[in-house]
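Quick note —
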Amino acid sequence: MQRILVTGAAGFIGFHLALALCAKGHEVYGVDNLNDYYDVELKKARLAELQKHNSFKFLEASLEDEPAMDEIFESFKPQIVVNLAAQAGVRYSIDNPRAYISSNIVGFTNILEGCRHHNVEHLIFASSSSVYGANKKVPFSETYNVDHPVSLYAATKKSNELMAHTYAHLYGLPCTGLRFFTVYGPWGRPDMAYFKFVDSILKGKSIDVYNEGDMRRDFTYIDDIVEGIDRLIAKGNNKNEPYRLFNIGNNNPVQLMDMIGIIEDKLGKKAETNMLPMQPGDVKETYADISALEQAVGFKPSTSLEEGLDKFVEWYRGYYK
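Predicted structure written out below.
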């Protein structure tokens, strides 16, 4: 069993991962600043679930708080660090760029420095499918050039990959970056389209559908994401190849209107749609080539959107009564 630091532990992916690691008997230290980018009560409810485990410790702090980060590394001495804390959201980055520089650049520097100075065995960090930006060729492969981001959020994630590569090269710090593709599921983020659609349809409100619905997304169920990370933790990272980068997606893009149709079927209600043009910073399609991940850990996500949305709707009805 290992000591694992999970940043963003009250966030959607961080919560599910920390829960799974605690269930396996690992000692987990969670960090989160509980910011109000979305409903803080949902973050606190996730935390309450985690705090049922004796092996889970928590500190409310921001990654950019250098003394707090130093203290965590010094006292907890993590063997593995999974950095999932970040200012999320493509659209929010258009109006609030400084939040992204602070959390995603300054904060990530503090994580890298903590790992470097405390002999961390493996840093796994969140990147994003948004780094593919204006790429037209699908499925997206890790070997493609990603020098054309279309949002500041994407630019900070690409920066994280470059920073981690530098630390792996200069200091031999084993780093694994994960480009997540549209993660969804129970306890999810209220700013995500699927969550908004379910919420609005049940409340009798209309939904905003961008690019007139002509979009495709590689929706990836949360349990598949956690399984992929768990396998990477178990496998470790060899010193001969200190830097690695993987897509983690469902390898099966779905049309946005088909996703809305599935939600309508689950809820037994039709959606009232506002057809709108493409939003700045958005991309028309995401589609993950996951052959590298499959080769590395013998796993590929396989949960269908129907199955995953079933579980989300069930959770939503239970949580919001």
